[in-house]
Design a protein that fits this description.
The chain has 297 residues and is α/β, with parallel strands linked by helices. It is built from 12 helices and 7 strands. It has a single domain, classed as TIM Barrel (Alpha-Beta Barrel). The longest helix is centred in the C-terminal third of the chain and has 16 residues. Keywords: Lyase. Belongs to the DapA family.
């Protein structure tokens, strides 16, 4: 385990949420999963992200997920997603995170419509009133709002964000962000560009596949951020058939299936997500079994 300068640094796992067969939340199993990830070298967890199916949770379930993670591994290791349709609701989730003991939150831009820059600024200003450092989450594919480097620079200059989870997959972005917003922490947001963004200077990884193969993903991240390409590249090649699922529509189902194959409980998803097609299920199984046979864990 490395010493982190800030609570959003390092490998922060966007946790899959274990659901029972009746689709109720298994809080005990979730607590065990959070502890397992830290024991395997991960630095913390990000509950209530898309991988955690937050959109399908009741308010009570969503709050308990955060509280469960904090009780399991400590608030300094928990950075909840606080996305919501309105800024007022997102602020309330940030306040709930603070009350639970968290030290940072992750926030999408407005995601109910294609917001312009004024709306984005207003959204982050409102949530910043909760008093916790905010890591912006740039996912223009799902939100239709692109937090381009110039807009990130404006948000950072106003003191509204401390970092950004960069999910575009554009490996050129970190360099422009560093030029326009010196001091803004870049976190890797898409698993299948972890090597490229780590080498560009990223200080964290909001990661999906450590849910299934935490030790190997941590080893990849540590080697990449240390510039040890000789160690990182073989791991990256071996993991990439799985890592690329993080950017696919079926990423939640794929990661949960990979967890099941690896001996960790993934379990079902809530609607509207549907099971993988037989072809996709076979591809994930084969890739996971190959990784395990190669000694990845």
């Amino acid at each position: 385990m490395t010493t982190r300068e800030k609570p959003w640094h390092g490998v922060m796992v966007a946790t899959a949420l274990p659901l029972r067969e009746d689709l109720s939340v298994d809080e005990d199993r979730y607590a065990e999963h959070c502890r397992h990830l830290v024991e395997q070298g991960c630095d913390g967890v990000v509950p209530n992200g898309s991988l955690g199916e937050y959109q399908t949770l009741t308010p009570g379930e969503r709050a308990r997920v955060v509280e469960t993670a904090v009780a399991a591994i400590g608030g300094d290791r928990v950075m909840p997603g606080v996305a919501a349709y309105g800024a007022a609701e997102a602020r309330r989730w940030a306040e709930q995170a603070a009350e639970a003991g968290c030290q940072a939150v992750m926030l999408l831009p407005p995601n109910a419509y294609r917001a312009d820059e004024r709306a984005v600024l207003g959204h982050y200003r409102e949530v910043a009133k909760a008093g916790l450092p905010i890591v912006a989450y740039n996912n223009p594919y799902d939100t239709r709002v692109d937090l381009v480097p110039s807009l990130l620079a404006e948000l950072h200059a106003e003191g509204l964000i401390a970092g950004v989870k960069e999910f575009t997959g554009d490996v050129r972005r970190p360099y422009e962000i560093a030029e326009l917003a010196p001091g803004l922490d870049v976190l890797i947001g898409s698993d299948d560009v972890v090597l490229e963004l780590a080498l560009s200077g990223a200080v964290g990884w909001v990661a999906g596949f450590p849910n299934a193969l935490p030790a190997s993903c941590v080893a990849l991240y540590r080697a990449a951020t240390e510039g040890d390409v000789a160690t990182a590249l073989p791991l990256y090649r071996a993991l990439h058939p799985l890592l690329r699922w993080d950017a696919k529509v079926e990423f939640v189902q794929a990661i949960k299936l990979s967890m099941d194959v690896a001996g960790r409980y993934g379990g079902p998803c809530r609607p509207p997500r549907v099971p993988l097609t037989p072809e996709h299920e076979a591809a994930v199984r084969v890739a996971t079994e190959k990784a395990l046979a190669g000694g990845l864990r």
